[in-house]
């Protein structure tokens, strides 16, 4: 009974976010219905036209039917939920979303990582998928709703410190072999790519010597996507690219604003795993800035160690990598939508398509 109660409380906390902006930190409860939350009085006022119908209906269900209803929203009251206490309010633990031309700062729920259903907050050495939440639960209860609502989703402490560190060793070993080449553009028309992107990359299938841990990471990514399949937008995911292992050398290099899949080449979900310990964006730079379509806001994602990021690959998410001043590692995999990929193959074969030849989703396996 105690376990069920704890799980129920966890699920309840995950439902608490600002009705207007999705922020999950420092929430206050609506004084009327006491079931909706806002991050500020200003956001409650802005949402009142939409919320008042629900609030009035909910108010009738309260224990005190004689409580009067105001024509304006009741003042929001500070939430005493454990969720508000557990969520970090520091900028380093959330992806800030800034509205252009406004001083107000909002937060995209899916880009915080703080609402991931796990107990990894108290022990960062333990991964999300191996504590309270199975990969299936993580996929269905967190990744799917975040992606479908916002098109961006962050999972922190994905594999844990030990496995993450072993993957970093593999990547550093690869880089030291000198097998990385300059990152190329999907459509390479000139020699200007260095002015657009400054990363060094190599493609990994997972069977190469010294890449066993990278292969394990790819299998874990596949496992999550397999549980999400059929529930992410209208996509039917049937494969992915090889893993692109990328290094920004730390000499003030980045990648200008771009879209991963602007022309319908079949890629629907971008999945990035970061390997940068003790990253400080103020000092090191290297933020991934995403500009979600249809909004004046942008999301800044720090490339933190053991962080997994998902976002739609198409024109809904233009993004850039800001200049990095220390070495920055990441591993990216793109997942294919079956129908779009088939149409793309009928039309053309791009250089990205050649490198990103479809492979079947691997079954998860333990690293050696």
From TrEMBL:
Molecular function terms, GO-annotated: ferrous iron binding; hypoxia-inducible factor-proline dioxygenase activity; L-ascorbic acid binding; zinc ion binding
EC number: 1.14.11.29
InterPro entries, sorted: HIF_prolyl_hydroxylases (IPR051559), Oxoglu/Fe-dep_dioxygenase_dom (IPR005123), Pro_4_hyd_alph (IPR006620), Pro_4_hyd_alph_FE2OG_OXY (IPR044862), Znf_MYND (IPR002893)
Top-level EC class: oxidoreductase
Domain of life: Eukaryota
Residue ranges occupied by any MYND-type domain in the UniProt entry: 18-55
A Pfam family per the record: zf-MYND
Taxonomic lineage: Eukaryota, Metazoa, Chordata, Craniata, Vertebrata
Domain Fe2OG dioxygenase: 236-337
Primary localization: nucleus
GO cellular component: cytoplasm; nucleus
PANTHER family: EGL NINE HOMOLOG 1, EGL NINE HOMOLOG-RELATED
UniProt GO BP: cellular response to hypoxia
Protein name (Swiss-Prot/TrEMBL): hypoxia-inducible factor-proline dioxygenase
Compartment annotation: Nucleus
Keyword check for Nucleus: yes
């Amino acid at each position: 009974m105690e376990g069920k109660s704890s799980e129920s409380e966890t699920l309840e906390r995950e439902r608490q976010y600002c009705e207007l902006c999705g922020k999950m930190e420092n929430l206050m409860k609506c004084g009327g219905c006491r079931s909706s939350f806002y991050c500020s009085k200003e956001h409650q006022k802005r949402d009142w036209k939409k919320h008042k119908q629900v609030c009035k209906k909910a108010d009738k269900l309260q224990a005190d039917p004689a409580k009067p209803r105001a024509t304006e929203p009741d003042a929001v009251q500070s939430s005493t939920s454990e969720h508000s206490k557990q969520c970090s309010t520091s900028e380093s633990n959330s992806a800030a979303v800034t509205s252009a031309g406004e001083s107000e700062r909002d937060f995209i729920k899916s880009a915080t990582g703080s609402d991931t259903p796990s107990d990894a907050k108290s022990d960062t050495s333990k991964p999300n998928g191996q504590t309270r939440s199975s990969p299936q639960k993580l996929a269905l209860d967190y990744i799917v709703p975040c992606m479908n609502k916002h098109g961006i989703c962050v999972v922190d402490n994905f594999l844990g410190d030990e496995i993450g560190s072993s993957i970093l060793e593999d990547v550093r070993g690869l880089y030291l072999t000198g097998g990385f080449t300059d990152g190329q553009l999907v459509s390479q028309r000139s020699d200007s790519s260095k002015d657009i992107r400054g990363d060094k990359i190599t493609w990994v299938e997972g069977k190469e010597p010294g890449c066993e841990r990278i292969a394990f990471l790819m299998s874990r990514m596949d496992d999550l996507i397999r549980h999400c399949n059929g529930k992410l937008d209208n996509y039917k995911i049937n494969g992915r690219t090889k893993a692109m292992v990328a290094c920004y050398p730390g000499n003030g290099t980045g990648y200008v604003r771009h879209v991963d899949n602007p022309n319908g080449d079949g890629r629907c979900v971008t999945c990035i795993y970061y390997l940068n310990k003790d990253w400080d964006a103020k000092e090191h730079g290297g933020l991934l800035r995403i500009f979600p379509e249809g909004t004046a806001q942008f999301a800044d994602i720090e490339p933190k160690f053991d962080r997994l990021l998902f976002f739609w690959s198409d024109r809904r998410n233009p993004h850039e990598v800001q200049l990095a001043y220390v070495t920055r590692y990441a591993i990216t995999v793109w997942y294919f939508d079956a129908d779009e990929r088939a149409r793309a193959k009928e039309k053309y074969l791009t250089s990205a398509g050649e490198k990103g030849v479809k492979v079947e989703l691997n079954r998860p396996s333990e690293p050696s």
